[in-house]
Each structure stands twice: as structure tokens, then as C-alpha cells.
Amino acid sequence: MYLAAARIRKDTKAWFFRAAIGWTAKLASRPLSRTDVWYMVQRRASDAQLETAIGCHTFRATGITDYLTNGGALEVAQRMAGHSNAKTTGLYDRRSDDISLSEAEKIGI
């Protein structure tokens, strides 16, 4: 759907994530910058009234964690993330956070 709306389905050289032209709801031919992505994430988080601070790496950590939780291999996650070292990929692994949350829920106040 996005490829058709962006009119890039047949253009294999086009940028996949493209910048918007002001507030016109039209896409430019230039790529979306890192800064634009960060501001977009912050706007969406604010619109969703999220209390936790999030950024682009939040999505990377979520994707890697979900992949590993569903039986994926760390080495494959490393390649998908484009990391040269598995230790870097391990920094995005949030599976142990679930354990901490379930343990914290045992506290009765």
C-alpha cells in the first residue's frame, strides 16, 4: 500500500522512507533524515500519551527482543541489525526485563 501511495513501487532506486514536503501530506524525493525520524517518534509517543521516554533504538530493542523471544538466534539477529559484534546486539536484548517485571508484580502493596 505504501509503495503504491508513494509511487515508488517500480522505482528500485527510490528512497523507501522519504521526507514530507512541509505539512502538505506529499512526499519529497529526498530521504527522511535521522532528525526527522526522531521528531516523528517523539510526536507519536506524545500523541499516545506514553509516560516512558522512547526513541528509535526502542524499536530496534523491541524487534531484536521479540525475535529472540520467538526462538531466533543471536547470530542471525546480529546480521539483521547490521552489528559487527554479537555483544552489541546483546545490548538490545530486553528479555530479562520481563523477568524483572513479573517478579515486581509479586509485591503486594
UniProtKB/TrEMBL annotation:
Keywords from the UniProt entry: DNA recombination
Biological process according to GO: DNA integration; DNA recombination
Pfam families from the UniProt entry: Phage_integrase (PF00589)
Domain Tyr recombinase: 1-106
Keyword Zinc-finger recorded: no
One GO MF term: DNA binding
Name listed for the protein in its UniProt record: Site-specific recombinase XerD
Organism encoding this protein: Granulicella aggregans
